[in-house]
Design a protein that fits this description.
The chain is of the alpha/beta class. The chain has a single domain (5-42, 79-520), classed as FAD/NAD(P)-binding domain (3-Layer(bba) Sandwich), CATH 3.50.50.60. 23% of the residues lie in helices and 20% in strands. The chain is built from 12 helices and 18 strands. Strands 1, 2, 7, 8, 9, 10 and 18 form a 7-stranded mixed β-sheet that branches. The longest helix is centred in the C-terminal third of the chain and has 21 residues, at 500-520. It is globular and about 75 Å long.
């Protein structure tokens, strides 16, 4: 047990936990951060090895991480071991829960895509009648986006699109590849825009809580970090009903410990935060904690095409290379028959099509690969998933993790809205590619299982009505005023955009509100 009572206890050290520490400590608030994983020295502990030195030649031990499609033998140690911390679901309704436990969390390994949400997300119900609006608008969060982007050095190009608001960018002035221009021109009738991807540049090596947020927080002298602290539950004062700390287990020794604080900020990532709250049996007078689980559906190589002029190594200078981003263009001013909301697409005019697209083998396959080297036009499709009450997590009554903590049981499936959206995306992008003069090798509208995007959202959502939401517009529990939840679980909708930039902006906003409430003595 820690003897000191901290002002704020922060669970998690990733994007949300790191931003909470960054914001609060600079206001003189004493913070304790509990991280379930170890401290990591990347310069000393990360090494490069040839494939032949690895026991499974880079493929990984069979069965070790069967539901983490991103795992291989080179990176297996970065993912949470599912034998230590399992989860359960109906085999017919799989869910891929991808987790990382180490200082910096998933911010160490994200793709750095940094897009703002718009009022098409914040006020989606006003636009199409489905679900609930966020209790905040884009205008309320925009000033915090403005402050987060320079910290993470987000690059991009301003386009003036209402569905993808511009930001404070490191301006990307690089020319678009000719293939991207042809794709854009072919889709003019759809009023689509091809823009630069918006990516955090960080310090040139990392763009994470680990290097951009936590060092500044520690430099204030107001942050204490405890690694290997696996949180079991949040404790409350029986007299006041307020939270007063957490019970946690030392990951290495198994020792049970308790830490005290005046305020608890939960930022362990969407599903782990929800698991902690469910195990604590708090903050759920609404009955919606764990419900409305959503993400973005992903289809890698949804459309695989070839630019004929680039075959045989004959691409003119400037035709291929780089990448682009196609923001949502469906259901903005028009209405599709079979689905609401929309999708976005990463465009990659480079590389070589996979061998599986050629239907041959041996010498002929090698000839085809050589002929198509550098001529591929690949796409990754990301679609908005509707937040629905029937998609949820609960505690499994029979299964616990290595430390005896009940695990999550998943009930999540995609609906016709997502399936129809995926079909439209593949058909539309294929048509644009054909109109651009590309040869479409393959179209695939089969989505990965829910969770594959690692963008899980919504299980502890915010709202104005305490009967329909867990948090208010400041990420503060409706039930317990000194409890805040600041990660993706607070989202009401997710759009097709990567959520990390919004998580950072929401956390900065919530943390400044928390600090002011502490100053007033209202927590």
């Amino acid at each position: 047990m820690t003897k000191e009572t901290y002002d704020v206890l922060i669970i998690g050290s990733g994007a949300s936990g790191g931003m909470a520490a960054y914001t609060l400590t600079q206001k003189g608030i004493k913070c304790l951060m509990l991280e379930a994983g170890p401290l990591v020295d990347f310069n000393r502990q990360r090494t490069l090895k040839p494939v032949y030195e690895l026991p499974y030649r880079g493929m990984g031990k069979p069965g070790k991480l069967p539901r983490v499609f991103q795992a291989n033998e080179f990176n297996a140690s970065q993912w949470v071991d599912e034998t230590d911390v399992p989860y359960t679901h109906d085999p017919k309704e799989p869910y891929n829960w991808v987790r990382i436990r180490m200082l910096g969390g998933k911010s160490l390994f994200w793709a750095r895509m940094s897009y703002r949400l718009s009022d098409y997300e914040f006020k989606g119900k006003d636009h199409d009648g489905f679900g609930e609006n966020w209790p905040i608008s884009y205008a309320e969060l925009a000033p915090f986006y403005d402050r987060v982007e320079p910290i993470f050095r987000v690059s991009g190009r301003k386009e003036g699109l209402p569905q993808l608001p511009d930001g404070i960018f490191v301006e990307d002035t690089s020319p678009d590849a000719g293939a991207l221009n042809r794709f854009r021109d072919a889709g003019k009738s759809l009023n689509l825009t091809v823009t630069k991807i918006r990516r955090s540049l960080g310090d040139g090596q990392f763009a994470s809580s680990y290097n951009l947020l936590l060092p500044a927080a520690q430099a204030t002298g107001n942050l204490t970090i405890v690694p290997n602290a696996v949180v079991r539950d949040i404790t409350t004062d029986k007299k006041t009903g307020l939270v007063n700390g957490v019970n946690y287990v030392d990951r290495q020794s198994g020792r049970a410990l308790h830490a005290k604080a005046k305020v608890v900020v939960v930022g362990a990532s969407c599903l782990e935060s929800t698991r902690i709250l469910l195990n604590s049996n708090i903050a759920n007078s609404s009955g919606v904690l764990g419900h409305y689980l959503h993400d973005q559906f992903y289809i890698s190589n949804g459309v695989q095409a070839v630019v004929p002029e680039a075959k045989g190594g004959n691409a003119p200078r400037g035709l291929m290379g780089g990448s682009g981003y196609l923001p949502r263009f469906r259901n903005l001013k028009t209405k599709e028959k079979n689905f609401i909301r929309g999708y976005a697409t990463d465009l990659n005019p480079s590389g070589t099509p996979d061998a599986k697209y050629f239907g041959t083998w041996g010498t002929e396959l090698q000839k085809q690969l050589d002929e198509h080297r550098g001529a591929a036009f690949g796409t990754t499709i990301m679609g908005e998933v509707l937040p629905r009450f029937e998609n949820y997590v609960k505690l499994d009554p029979k299964v616990t993790d290595k430390w005896g903590i009940p695990v999550l049981n998943f009930h999540c499936r995609y609906s016709d809205n997502e399936f129809n959206m995926a079909k439209d995306a593949v058909a539309t992008i294929s048509n644009i590619c054909n109109d651009a003069g590309f040869k479409v090798l393959h179209g695939n509208d089969k989505m990965f299982p829910p969770g594959h995007s690692i963008h899980e959202l919504g299980t502890c959502r915010m709202g104005d009505d305490p009967k329909k939401s867990v948090l208010n517009k400041w990420n503060q529990s409706h039930d317990i005023k000194n409890l805040f939840v600041v990660d993706g679980s607070s989202f009401v909708t997710g759009g097709a955009q990567n959520p990390t930039l919004t998580i950072l902006a929401l956390t900065m906003r919530a943390s400044e509100y928390l600090a002011e409430q502490l100053r007033k003595g209202d927590l």
